[in-house]
C-alpha cells in the first residue's frame, strides 16, 4: 500500500467513479482538483463518497479520506500539492485538458531540486491525451524544470473504459458506475510506473486505445445520434430499437474489419468483444441519456476521434468507403441539442457556410473524396 499523494483533476463521473476510486483503493491520499465550487466543498465537508455498481446486487463501496482543491481559488495550494505528488491524473474532457498545462508546469517547477519521480496520466476519451498534455506543459517550463522533467517525469498515454452515466442521487457525491472497467497505460521504456490496483500496463497502447475508441465509443455515439434523431431520450431505449441496433452493429463491423486487419485480432474474439459492448449499452441498471453520450459533436467528428479516424483508416486499408461510419458522421452532423454548445456551433456553421464547408472544416475530409460524398448522401437520406 502506498501512502503517497495522487492529484486527480476532474472530480466528475470518471474522476470519482473510476480513477479516484482505484487510486484510493491503492492507498494513495487522493486530492481532487476541480473548478466546481459545490463539488469541492462537498468533498472537503464529507471526506468520503459512495460508489454503487450498476447491476442487480447494487453493491456499494465507500471511498474514504479524500479531499479537494479548487483549481483557480486554491491554485497555490494545488501547485504545492503537485510538487509533492507521486501521480497526477486527469478526467476533465479532451478540450479542457490543455488548460491544465500551466498549473502542472508550475507544480513541476516546485520539484526541480528533488529526485522524486512523477507520472502524469490523462484519462480521457482520446488518442494520445497524455502526450498532448505534455506538449502543452513543456514550453511553459524553465530550463531547469525541463531538465528535471526529462529525467523524472513521464506522461504515459492511457485508455479508460467504464460507462459512468448521468448521476441522480440525493447525495451529490454518490456515483453509480457499470461493473466493467479497464484502465490501460502505456509503460514508458525504461521507466517505472506507480502501482495502482486495477491499472494494466502495456508496451504498446495503440491496439488497446483504437479497439476501445473505435468500438465502445463509436458504438455508443452511433446509438446516441440515431436515438436523438428518433427522439428517443435514453441509451437503453435507443439500443433496443432494431434499426439503431442494426446501424450500430454495421458501424462496428466496419471498425472491426479494420481492427482485425491492423492488429491481427481473431475475428471470433473480436465479435465476442463487440457483443459484450452492446450488452453493456443495454445495461438496465444504467439510466443514461443520448444527449450525454452524444455531447460535444464537433469533438466527436474530429479527425482523430471515433468516427473519422476509423473511416479514413478503413478507406486506406480496404480501398472502399465505409457506409455505416459515413452514416454515423451524417447523424452526428444532425445532432442539434440546444443545450450543447458544440451542437449549436455546428448547426450554425452548417446554416451559415453550407454542409460541404462544415464537413470539410470539422472533419478535415476533402470534398473530392468518396468518403465526403457518402457522408453528404447519408445526411440527405437520413430521416
Ligand atoms: N463518463 C464516462 O462514462 C466516461 C468518460 N470518459 C472520459 O473522462 C473524461 C471526463 O468525463 P466525465 O467524468 O464523464 O465528465 P464529467 O463532466 O462528469 O466530469 C468532468 C469534471 O471536470 C471538471 N472540470 C472542468 N474543467 C476543469 C478544470 N479546468 N480543472 C479541473 N476540473 C475541471 C468538471 O467540473 C467536472 O467535475 C472525458 O474525457 C470523458 O471522455 C472516459 C470513459 C468513460
Ligand atoms: O465522454 P465522451 O468522449 O463525450 O463520450 C461519451 C461517452 O462514451 C463513453 O465513454 C463510452 O461509450 C461514455 O460513457 C462517455 O462518457
UniProtKB/TrEMBL annotation:
**Residues covered by the Mannitol dehydrogenase C-terminal domain:** 204-347
According to its UniProt entry, the protein's GO biological process terms are: mannitol catabolic process
What EC number(s) has UniProt assigned to this enzyme?
1.1.1.17
Task: Give the family per the record.
Answer: Belongs to the mannitol dehydrogenase family.
List the catalytic activities from the record. Answer: D-mannitol 1-phosphate + NAD(+) = beta-D-fructose 6-phosphate + NADH + H(+)
One GO cellular-component annotation of the UniProt record comes to: cytosol
The UniProt keyword set, sorted, is: NAD, Oxidoreductase
Q: Which residues form a coiled coil?
A: none
Q: Which NCBIfam families match?
A: PRK02318.1-2, PRK02318.1-3, PRK02318.2-1, PRK02318.2-5
Q: What is this protein called?
A: Mannitol-1-phosphate 5-dehydrogenase
Domain of life, per lineage? Bacteria
Record InterPro entries: 6-PGluconate_DH-like_C_sf, 6PGD_dom2, Mannitol_1_phos_5_DH, Mannitol_DH, Mannitol_DH_C, Mannitol_DH_CS, Mannitol_DH_N, NAD(P)-bd_dom_sf
Positions annotated to bind NAD(+): 6-17
UniProt domain Mannitol dehydrogenase N-terminal: residue ranges: 5-189
* PROSITE patterns for this protein: MANNITOL_DHGENASE (PS00974)
Amino acid at each position: 500500500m502506498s501512502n503517497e499523494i495522487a492529484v486527480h483533476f476532474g472530480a466528475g463521473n470518471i474522476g470519482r467513479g473510476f480513477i479516484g476510486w482505484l487510486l484510493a483503493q491503492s492507498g494513495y491520499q487522493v486530492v481532487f482538483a476541480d473548478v466546481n465550487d459545490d463539488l469541492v466543498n462537498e468533498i472537503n465537508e464529507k471526506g468520503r463518497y459512495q460508489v454503487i455498481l450498476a447491476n442487480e446486487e447494487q453493491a456499494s463501496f465507500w471511498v474514504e479520506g479524500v479531499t479537494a482543491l479548487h483549481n483557480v481559488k486554491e491554485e497555490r495550494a494545488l501547485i504545492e500539492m503537485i510538487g509533492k505528488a507521486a501521480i497526477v491524473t486527469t478526467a476533465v474532457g479532451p478540450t479542457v485538458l490543455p488548460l491544465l498545462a500551466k498549473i502542472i508546469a508550475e507544480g513541476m517547477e516546485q520539484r526541480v531540486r528533488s529526485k522524486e519521480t512523477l507520472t502524469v496520466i490523462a484519462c480521457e476519451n482520446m488518442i494520445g491525451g497524455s502526450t498532448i498534455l505534455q506538449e502543452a506543459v513543456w514550453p511553459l517550463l524553465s530550463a531547469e524544470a525541463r531538465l528535471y522533467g526529462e529525467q523524472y517525469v513521464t506522461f504515459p498515454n492511457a485508455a479508460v473504459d467504464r460507462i459512468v452515466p448521468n448521476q441522480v442521487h440525493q447525495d451529490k457525491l454518490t456515483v453509480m458506475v457499470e461493473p466493467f472497467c479497464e484502465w490501460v497505460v502505456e509503460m514508458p521504456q525504461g521507466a517505472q510506473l506507480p502501482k495502482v490496483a486495477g491499472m494494466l500496463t502495456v508496451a504498446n497502447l495503440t491496439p488497446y486505445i483504437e479497439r476501445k475508441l473505435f468500438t465502445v465509443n463509436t458504438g455508443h455515439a452511433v446509438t446516441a445520434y440515431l436515438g436523438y434523431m428518433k427522439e428517443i431520450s435514453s441509451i437503453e431505449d435507443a439500443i433496443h430499437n432494431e434499426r439503431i441496433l442494426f446501424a450500430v452493429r454495421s458501424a462496428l463491423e466496419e471498425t472491426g474489419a479494420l481492427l482485425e486487419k491492423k492488429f491481427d485480432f481473431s475475428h471470433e474474439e473480436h465479435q465476442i468483444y463487440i457483443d459484450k459492448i452492446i450488452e453493456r449499452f443495454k445495461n438496465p441498471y444504467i439510466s443514461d441519456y443520448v444527449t450525454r453520450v452524444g455531447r460535444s459533436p464537433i469533438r466527436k467528428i474530429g479527425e482523430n476521434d471515433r468516427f473519422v479516424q476509423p473511416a479514413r483508416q478503413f478507406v486506406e486499408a480496404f480501398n472502399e468507403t465505409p457506409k455505416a461510419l459515413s452514416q454515423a458522421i451524417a447523424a452526428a452532423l444532425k445532432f442539434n441539442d440546444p443545450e450543447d454548445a458544440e451542437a449549436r456551433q455546428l448547426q450554425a456553421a452548417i446554416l451559415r457556410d453550407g454542409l460541404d464547408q462544415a464537413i470539410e472544416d470539422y472533419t478535415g475530409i476533402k470534398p473530392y473524396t468518396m468518403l465526403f460524398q457518402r457522408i453528404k448522401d447519408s445526411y440527405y437520406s437520413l430521416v
